[in-house]
């Protein structure tokens, strides 16, 4: 069983419009709703790969109910979300049919009370007893202390459960001090954390801040991994044209899947890159195509890099 | 009792963002939700003026429940919405805090089945027995026949209830053939109906298509009315700076309020213009400030116009 934590779950709404024009009125031609938040997306990919996965974090209000109603039917996925009094946030992605570009609007999420935060931490500690890995994913909702991830990482380490952290901003800066086994920043998060825009230097710097391994996602350039076993660059076989929504979450799912099945690092990275690429190429945002994934898996280029700083 | 019909009710969501940039990601700083759809807005203004008002139309799903939960506490307002199996639509207004401009995204609404449409028409006919005026407001949801308003107008006329129509596009073109007592188009709707961008000519033309009276809302220029008793222009006392959201709905409420209290046309128009102006000037979109309304009421400039075409 793998555990994913999404403290700021979301009901992800996608609107298609013929062309987005600021300050104009638009008729939405298509509305798609699905459960979201990074850890929920990771869990869906893991379940599709055949893993048993438990989803925790917070859910509340009618949007929280909609989210949970849509998680229940997913085979292999267990809902262990903790109730919160405020309503789960919505995110709205407005897709311009003309350009294919997406404009994203993210609600802040409900304010979590101290009692709710305490209740979550107890549930989390109980859940850790039965899992082989945990991923802490996404932003912190209002009310949750900024150092939350560092605490959750320490709890996981005490329970001897390997922990992956994928977040941004202050939550990332404070979280890395908790010494996660794997840190998965993207290029922007890495630059914000380290002050360096040079990926190789920044990835090594991020690891020195406390992570066991750092796997940086560099968009079309694939993944750069700095681990105790070595440094690798893993690249998709060709430039990918598609929707990058959810590609980072699919990479996290690939890393976790490879971790719990005991794969060596190069194979974990190939799995992560192939899943990520199959997500970019899928017709629906955030989904992945299994055939494409399996076809790409053997074609990811893994290069070992020099380990010196 | 006044009846307002909103076949395509909505949960109106307002997002404030520091600055809207297409194709970027935005953190929403404020989320406001309120029951919407034109007839619901008209009813809220009528209730605030002290009228008893019944709201009908369709509501469904969790968004419909949120909408009804928020209508219930409004004093003077009776909820007679008819259930529909699909979820009530959302509208999202994105307010750019820098410019104050609004970008609007409107979901299409649930598809109404033939059985649901029949159920509505029965409820509507029953409700007509106890009301002194009815307003038919806004767009038609998918599944409702394009000639729906013409039929509802004929039913109201058979019940000797005066009827106001405020809609657009094909629903307006087909609706006017049902001979509503009052037609309330804005400048764009009037031009689309008649092909003329000259308001005076277009308003008279619209009346010849079947309406008893036409009251065109011309934005900052106020209202232009062509009625059996005369032609008037009613203008606010000064240029108004504010948010025009809901100003047209407030004008409809003013016209209905004046109608059921037996005011002559110039006084009805003054009420409509003052309410509309007080809505533009209110700090919250779609609300109106009672003090501003009362202050403006005596300062609306009413000009009788020559009646010849």
Automatic annotation (TrEMBL), chains A, B:
Sequence ranges assigned to domain Carbohydrate kinase PfkB in this UniProt record: 13-286
Alphabetical keyword list: ATP-binding, Kinase, Nucleotide-binding, Transferase
Superkingdom of the source species: Bacteria
Protein name stated in the entry: 1-phosphofructokinase family hexose kinase
Source organism of the structure: Streptomyces cathayae
One Pfam family recorded for the sequence: PfkB
Family to which this protein belongs: Belongs to the carbohydrate kinase PfkB family.
Lineage of the species this protein comes from: Bacteria, Bacillati, Actinomycetota, Actinomycetes, Kitasatosporales
InterPro entries: Carboh/pur_kinase_PfkB_CS (IPR002173), PfkB_dom (IPR011611), Ribokinase-like (IPR029056), Tagatose/fructose_Pkinase (IPR017583)
Keyword Lipid biosynthesis: no
PANTHER family: 1-PHOSPHOFRUCTOKINASE, 1-PHOSPHOFRUCTOKINASE-RELATED
């Amino acid at each position: 069983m793998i555990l994913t934590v999404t403290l700021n779950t979301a009901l992800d709404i996608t609107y298609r419009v013929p062309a987005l024009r600021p300050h104009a009125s638009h008729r939405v031609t298509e509305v798609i709703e699905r459960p979201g938040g990074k850890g929920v997306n990771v869990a869906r990919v893991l379940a599709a790969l055949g893993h048993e996965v438990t989803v925790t974090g917070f859910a509340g209000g009618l949007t929280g109910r909609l989210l949970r109603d849509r998680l229940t039917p997913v085979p292999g996925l267990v809902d262990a979300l903790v109730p919160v009094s405020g309503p789960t946030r919505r995110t709205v992605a407005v897709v311009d049919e003309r350009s294919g570009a997406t404009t994203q609007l993210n609600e802040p999420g409900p304010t979590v009370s101290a009692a709710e935060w305490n209740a979550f931490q107890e549930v989390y500690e109980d859940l850790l007893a039965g899992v082989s890995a945990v991923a802490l994913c996404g932003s912190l909702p209002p009310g949750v202390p900024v150092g939350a991830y560092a605490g959750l990482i320490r709890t996981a380490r005490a329970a001897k459960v390997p922990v992956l952290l994928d977040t941004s901003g202050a939550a990332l800066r404070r979280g890395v001090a908790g010494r996660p086994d794997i840190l998965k920043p993207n290029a922007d998060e890495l630059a914000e954390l380290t002050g360096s825009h040079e990926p190789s230097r920044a990835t090594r710097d991020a690891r020195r801040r406390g992570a066991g391994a750092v796997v940086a996602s560099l968009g079309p350039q694939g993944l750069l991994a700095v681990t105790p076993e070595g440094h690798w660059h893993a690249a998709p076989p060709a430039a990918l044209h598609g929707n990058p929504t959810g590609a980072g979450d699919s990479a996290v799912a690939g890393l976790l899947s490879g971790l719990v099945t005991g794969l060596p690092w190069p194979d974990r990275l190939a799995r992560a890159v192939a899943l990520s690429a199959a997500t970019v190429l899928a017709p629906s945002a955030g989904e992945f195509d299994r055939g494409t994934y399996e076809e790409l898996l053997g074609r990811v280029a893994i290069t070992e890099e020099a380990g010196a700083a």
